[in-house]
Amino acid sequence: MTTIEHLRTPPSPEGTAAARQTWWDRFDRAALRASEWLNPILVKETRQALKSRQFMITFTLVLTAAWIWSMLGVSMIGPNIYHGFHGWDMFCGYFVILAFPLLVIVPFGAFRSLASEREDGTYELLSVTTLRPRQIVSGKLGSAVVQMLVYFSAVSPCLAFTYMLKGIDFPTVLCVMFYTFIASLGLSVIGLVVATATAEKHWQIVLSVFLLFGLALAFYAGLAIVIGGLSQTSLPFQDPEFWAANAAMLTGFGAYFVLFFCVASAQLTFASNNRSTALRVVMLAQQALFTGWMGWTFHHADGDLEILFPYLILSGLHWTIMGMFMNGESPELSHRVKRQLPQSFLGRAFLTWFNPGPAAGFVFAVINMATVLLLAGAALIANAAFYPGRLPGWLGMNPREMIVIFAIVEFSYVVVYLGLGRLLAAGLRKVHQGGMLLCALCQVLLVLLGCGAPLTVHLMIADLRMDYSLLEITNPFWSLIEIVEHRSLSPEMVVLLVVLPVTAGCVLLANLPSVVAAVRQVRIAKPVRVAEEDEFFELQRHPPQPIIDPLAD
Amino acid sequence: MVGAHPMIELRGLYRHFGRTRAVNDVSFSVARGQVFGYIGPNGAGKTTSMRILATLDQPTSGDAFVDGFSVVDDPDRVRFRLGFMPDYFGTYANVNVREYLDFFARAYGLRGAERTRALSYVMSFTKLDTLSEKPIDGLSKGMKQRLCLGRAMIHDPAVMILDEPAAGLDPRARIQLREMIRELAADGKAILISSHILTELAEMCDLVGIIEQGRLLAVGNVAEIQRGHETLHATPIHARILGGADGASQWLAARQEIQEIRTDGELIAFEHRGDREAEVQLLRDLVQAGFPVLAFGSQTRSLEEVFMQVTRGHVQ
Question: Do the chains contact at A130 and B3, CB–CB below 8 Å?
Answer without folding.
Answer: no
